[in-house]
Design brief:
By secondary structure, the chain is mainly alpha-helical. The protein contains nine helices and three strands.
Length: 193
Amino acid sequence: MLHDVKVDVKYLDVDFIVRCTMFGHMKDQVDAILRQWEEERPDLDPSPLGILSRIVRLGKHIEADLRRGLAPFGLDTWSFDVLAALRRQGSPYALSPTALRRASLLTSGAMTNRIDRLEERDLVERVADPNDRRSLRVHLTPTGLGLIEEAIEARLNAAQDLTSCLTDEEQDQLSQLLRKLLLAKPEEMVTSG
């Protein structure tokens, strides 16, 4: 409910007003879908769809934002994921192809192809494992390290912008609840991301 608000009608954003009539009662498209199911099938509880539909829709928005944010760096989501997995290891920023594949949840063939493409751009290099000459390790090159350092800063700034509408307490609570949902799934789902 809006109180004592005067609005110049030629600048009225009806969608915004519908969504934000009261902060505690914001409505979105999912609310309309749930209401329709409640009317059509009052014998069913559609509320779990409210959670999952919002997660799916938010995921699509996040993925699109990620692609737009990575484009200036010449990266896409898979190349960002591979470079970020290496960077997270700390110096010397290296993993075996198998460990890198597991960190990225890719098939062996897909990982080989992606390493090849990143190597062509001088972002990674394959080097002999110092502990096992029969094995290789994939290392970030100085170029790859510089690129992922810039890209992760941009990515984290974008994530901060997206979550800034939530208080610190709300962010923590949401993170815990999403973790709980992920942990309820099989192991292969838990390790993604």
